[in-house]
Amino acid sequence: MREKDERERERERERERERERIREKEREKECERKRERKRERKRERKRERKRERKRERKRERKNKRKRERKNEREKERKRERKNEREKEREIERKNEREKERE
């Protein structure tokens, strides 16, 4: 009887050890899932920074083109005003010469 009880207790201890091994494996799996989620968040942050840099470069190129076009229009206006003034001066000189001839 005692032997039977002893064998039963031993089997119970063995089952408990097996349950503990299973729990340990589950804890390890959970730890690994947690690490994987952490790695994934890190990768996602990296991808997001990359996308943000790309958007920023695009904005900068757009703003640069805009500034260049604006500057070009301003230069063109200056040239036109200068030409206009030159024409007016030429007309005035012509008129002056006409007056002097009279």
UniProtKB/TrEMBL annotation:
It comes from the Eukaryota. Residues 35-68 have a biased composition (Basic residues). Residues 1-102 are annotated as: Disordered. Residues 1-34, 69-102 have a biased composition (Basic and acidic residues). This is Uncharacterized protein. The lineage of its organism: Eukaryota, Metazoa, Spiralia, Lophotrochozoa, Mollusca.
